[in-house]
Specification:
Layout: H1 2-42, H2 47-61, H3 64-77, H4 82-95, H5 97-108, H6 116-127, H7 133-162, H8 169-172, H9 179-196, H10 199-211, H11 217-239, H12 244-266, H13 268-280, H14 298-324, H15 328-338, H16 361-379, H17 382-390, H18 395-427, H19 433-468, H20 475-500, H21 510-533, H22 541-567
Helix pairs in contact: 1-2, 1-3, 1-7, 2-4, 3-4, 3-12, 3-16, 4-12, 4-14, 4-15, 5-10, 5-14, 6-7, 9-11, 10-11, 10-14, 11-12, 11-14, 12-14, 12-15, 13-14, 16-18, 16-19, 16-20, 17-18, 17-19, 17-20, 18-19, 19-22, 20-21, 20-22, 21-22
């Protein structure tokens, strides 16, 4: 019974460790916010900057996965090309090694758990401050940091009881198989990383295994290589339901790390000697010949093994990056060949959020924003269909165009539902107050876009009823309706400019207001003209009614369009 309790305590400590790390990472992302995303988008003009950016961002948010997600979203949005994204991912590989050093320096050298509960108290107080979202996010960071080390400390203490050479004798039986042992422990590193969905958790276990003497440094190094492959498998699983850009980015991640593992395996003994040389330069014993049974030097040997694991992790990623950074164009060609661009026959299919919400709510909103822009681009085709429907010469031509108006109304309904469902899932996560306002704005926008589809279909119905009664507009009416559609297209262009603006909220929508004023003024002019024409004996009143109804519906579409720009207006969100 005691053994089972200790096993579940071990599993619980891993869970607490991961929960703390996720809380820490999520809080850091919320504090960094759009400033971090802007930095990531701007600091990628050359490979050196791309790598430094990847290192910096990953070090700040303590998650290479989150960095990769941001990179994918920027590739989708066209802010980064795939080559730039690959450079940032290479940097993220180096940045993620910082977590290992934090665990080695603070988790083993100091008992950070002693400071955990005071930190949790401070974090809790900050999170209760209702008027300051920044302080709440800071409190989340502090609590996440504390729980991270509480989990790590408990993991160490429980592991010292359960993970010993005697209890894990089956592992020791796999340490004498030569090259076979290296392959076995490489596979163990892959499996652990896939199971935990965290390279940090795998590195923590590797540190414990090597410092307790369960495995020698050589096999710990093999597990590190496996961890680097395992973290790419998790990314590919997440991207498997995503779009082409996500798949290309994920597979490039795999190509980079797999290539690195292959070349290191080819010179494995030499690479381990290099790690040993670096560690001995700082006065520590050589990890390749370390013997923990030497009680007189046990402390120094344990420290050497611990820092050797971190050195191995860092050296692998740094050297691999320096080798492959020169071949980014070739990597782009390979992943483009693996996942070629395909024409999307189903126009209603979501383009950016088909894979579901991302790892954090904050980052998921960027995907939603891109999808809404794409939704706007779909709806912007509707005025062109209306122009063609109004100018149709016969019933057969009109019917073909009207089918498109009906289809796009169905598309707008479907896309609105899909985006709204996505936003509903995002809202369930931890989000800042600014992001909550942003979600409300997005709900308003997709509703207005859906209404544009309804208006297009309604105009098709009006034209269908008119034609059914033998009423066709003359050349003058068609010309005026086409001019009205032209004003509507100008309004669409202004709306799309405002939708694509990178800021969370914008301060000026004078472009949209000017377009809306033009639509209203022309509507008023046509309405007054219709009233005057009703008094003329040669004016067909019934045709005029259909005509002015369409004018009114076009003006209503203009209202929906201006509402979208207003939903992005900063003062509306206060």
């Amino acid at each position: 019974m005691q053994v089972f309790l200790q096993i579940f305590t071990l599993l619980g400590s891993v869970a607490l460790f991961l929960f703390g790390l996720n809380l820490l990472s999520g809080g850091l992302q919320k504090v960094a916010g759009d400033g971090l995303r802007s930095f990531l988008a701007s600091m990628t003009s050359n490979p050196f900057k791309q790598i430094i950016t990847g290192i910096g961002v990953t070090a700040v948010i303590q998650s290479s996965t989150a960095t990769t997600i941001m990179v994918v979203s920027f590739v989708n949005a066209g802010l980064l090309v795939l080559g730039q994204a690959i450079g940032v991912i290479m940097g993220a590989h180096i940045g993620t090694t910082i977590t290992s050093w934090i665990m080695a320096v603070f988790g083993f050298s100091f008992n950070m758990a002693d400071f955990a509960f005071p930190l949790i108290f401070i974090g809790f107080v900050l999170m209760q401050l209702k008027k300051s979202q920044t302080r709440k996010d800071l409190g989340e960071i502090i609590i996440g940091f504390a729980l991270f080390f509480v989990g790590f400390a408990q993991l160490r203490s429980t592991a010292q009881v359960l993970i010993t050479p005697d209890s894990l004798g089956f592992l020791q039986s796999w340490t004498q198989l030569g090259v076979g042992s290296i392959i076995i422990f490489l596979l163990i590193g892959i499996v652990l990383t896939v199971c935990f969905q965290s390279s940090a958790a795998t590195m923590a276990i590797i540190m414990i295994l090597v410092t307790t003497g369960v495995i020698p440094f050589k096999l710990a190094a093999a597990m590190i290589l496996g961890e680097n492959i395992g973290t790419t498998i998790a990314a590919n699983i997440a991207a498997s339901v995503g779009n082409t850009a996500a798949k290309r980015t994920a597979i490039s991640h795999t190509i980079i790390n797999t290539f690195g593992v292959l070349w290191v395996l080819c010179i494995f003994p030499l690479f381990l000697k290099l790690v040993g040389s670096i560690v001995t330069m700082f006065g520590l014993p050589d990890p390749n010949t370390a013997d923990l049974t030497d009680t007189a030097n046990a402390a120094a040997i344990s420290t050497s093994l611990l820092y050797s694991v971190c050195t191995m992790h860092t050296l692998f990623n740094v050297v691999n990056t320096l080798l492959l950074v020169w071949f980014i164009p070739q990597i782009v060609k390979i992943v483009t060949w693996i996942f070629p661009t395909k024409e999307d026959d189903a126009i209603y299919k979501l383009k950016y959020i088909s894979g579901g919400p991302l790892s954090t709510s904050e980052l998921s909103l960027e995907e939603a924003r891109q999808e809404i822009v794409h939704f706007g681009e779909i709806c912007s085709k509707i005025p062109g269909f209306i122009r063609s429907a109004v100018g149709a010469k016969d019933q057969e031509e009109f019917s073909k165009i009207n089918e498109k108006l009906v289809k796009y109304e169905e598309i707008s309904d479907k896309v609105e539902y899909e985006i709204a469902s996505y936003l509903g899932e995002v809202s369930k996560g931890e989000i800042s107050s600014t992001s909550a306002k942003r979600i409300k704005s997005m709900y308003r926008i997709i509703k207005e876009l859906e209404s544009i589809g309804d208006s297009g279909e309604a105009i098709g119905r009006m034209l269908g009823r008119a034609h059914g009664r033998g009423k066709w507009f003359d050349g003058e009416m068609v010309g005026k309706l086409e001019r009205m559609v032209g004003l509507l297209e100008d309004a669409f262009n202004s709306m799309m400019d405002n939708l694509k603006a990178p800021q969370i909220f914008i301060k000026d929508i004078s472009n949209a207001e000017k377009a809306e004023d033009g639509i209203n003024a022309y509507r008023d002019s046509l309405r007054e003209e219709h009233i005057d024409n009703c008094e003329k004996p040669d004016y067909n009143y019934q045709t005029g009614v259909f005509y002015i109804d369409i004018v009114q519906e076009l003006e209503k579409m203009g209202d929906f369009i201006i509402n979208i720009s207003q939903s992005r207006l900063e003062k509306k969100m206060v």
